Please model this.
Amino acid sequence: MGRIITIAIPKGGVGKTTTAVNLAASFAAFERRTLLIDADPFGACSMSLGFTPEKTKGGLYEVFNFVYSMTQVIHRTELAFLDFVPANVKAPQHEDRLQRLSENRTMLRNVLRQLVPHYDYILIDTPPFLRGLTTNALSCSDSVLVPMKSGHFSLEGVDKLFRHLEWIRETANRTLQVEGILQTMYEPHLKVTEISDRELQLRYRKHLLRTSIPKNTHLTEASFYGKPAILFNATSRGTLGYMELARELMGRHAVP
Amino acid sequence: MGRIITIAIPKGGVGKTTTAVNLAASFAAFERRTLLIDADPFGACSMSLGFTPEKTKGGLYEVFNFVYSMTQVIHRTELAFLDFVPANVKAPQHEDRLQRLSENRTMLRNVLRQLVPHYDYILIDTPPFLRGLTTNALSCSDSVLVPMKSGHFSLEGVDKLFRHLEWIRETANRTLQVEGILQTMYEPHLKVTEISDRELQLRYRKHLLRTSIPKNTHLTEASFYGKPAILFNATSRGTLGYMELARELMGRHAVP
Ligand SMILES: Nc1ncnc2c1ncn2[C@@H]1O[C@H](COP(=O)(O)OP(=O)(O)OP(=O)(O)O)[C@@H](O)[C@H]1O
Ligand SMILES: Nc1ncnc2c1ncn2[C@@H]1O[C@H](COP(=O)(O)OP(=O)(O)OP(=O)(O)O)[C@@H](O)[C@H]1O
Ligand SMILES: [Mg+2]
Ligand SMILES: [Mg+2]
Model:
């Protein structure tokens, strides 16, 4: 059914990459054909899946430069149902170049078109700012998934994102939906969690996902070993959290 | 003595802003005349110090647009020895404009020149990417302070930053020093902490600061109340960590 979901929020370090990687792995574990695309020049998705430079035949960088087609940079992963397109930005000059090329807001839409029939889910990880690659991804997605961790800055990031979504809908993607707001690195019983929960209930209740991902060091540990959590520790609370998230989202996408 | 310190690493959410704000507050508590500059369009420093739009007379945005001088956008804070220049980027179009203006790498150097005699420390908070404002800040700083939290991505961020510093030294700022690498949100006894510690000792031993900031929820709580940690909870482990950091740095800057 080719549902394209962008993972985005213009705040750093709230679990965008961890969510993109582990949600993709969870969909794949449920035998949904899944493609993960790293649209963040930082390349953290590659690190999370063990894609060192030697294992990388090319990525989004080459595609945006018309050197390779998208099909040529699709990599198989250790999970049968998960494919991966790296960012493959190997130098600061390449990052500048990719940012400039992504000013063309239809770049990603054009190259994804042919892929959509081949996958049930296409997930796109993005950098912690809205312009360029993130706007590109949002412009061609069916929905956006918004991770956030408890705290004042995260809430401000959610606000900023939602204002940006209004502009995206007006100018590029009228039907862009919100998959939901996902609370990550969740630590119950803290005052900051209580304050954040209250704010989310007040202002974003209808978008708040039932699933929240607990703070769980195994999720960080897995990335040191270049494996998604499900292959590193199948029963950690972090792994189970993302499986739960996949179930919640698939439940809403079920064909009637 | 006007030491300009940029707080930077191209990885999100590792405590750049929390460090900029609370180190600045700690220097001020030690009666060093301190200026904090928010060079991140996100505006998290403003949030951390309680500077709502009504309390903001202008900021870096106006200065880069030649609407105000730096002196006109210096704000007093609740701490006698701490002044503050907000980013004051109020709209996405303003963010694009500020990024374009900051392609001129000497912008910040030019406007800081007159301020240097008036302060002992000038701290600059930056966004989680290297180009634009961060390069501007690094090009005119005496040193860079590099926060990181345990994890594979943070270590990669340190590597990326150090490569960028080489380029900065060659092209814009020959004498740029490394103030040090600061471990933040530190949680002893975790496997990921052990792996990160080992990697830092192996590759960055001479840059690793003695002080590390413990994971401490009061630091996040303080930002909800628009106060630096020292005014919110003077004895929390987070507050004491940043006072300790200020002592360690001042000890090295002591006039012989
Ligand atoms: N549920 C969790 N529990 C514990 N640690 C987590 C959890 N989720 C993510 N982390 C860790 O927090 C750090 C930041 O996460 P991540 O890099 O996924 O955030 P991000 O939003 O993609 O950051 P950036 O904005 O820099 O791209 C990583 O080291 C990651 O391993
Ligand atoms: N020592 C700590 N203990 C607990 N929480 C912390 C600590 N330091 C920072 N935090 C919290 O972690 C979150 C991220 O910190 P912060 O915003 O300072 O990072 P950053 O590097 O400036 O992020 P960005 O890259 O988005 O600018 C904030 O909510 C902050 O309150
Ligand atoms: Mg990321
Ligand atoms: Mg910040």
Notes: The interface with chain B takes residues 10-14, 17, 42-44, 47, 92, 95-96, 99, 127-131, 149-153, 156-157, 160, 163-164, 167, 187, 190-192, 195, 217, 220-221, 223-224 of chain A (CB under 8 Å). The longest helix of chain A spans residues 152-171.
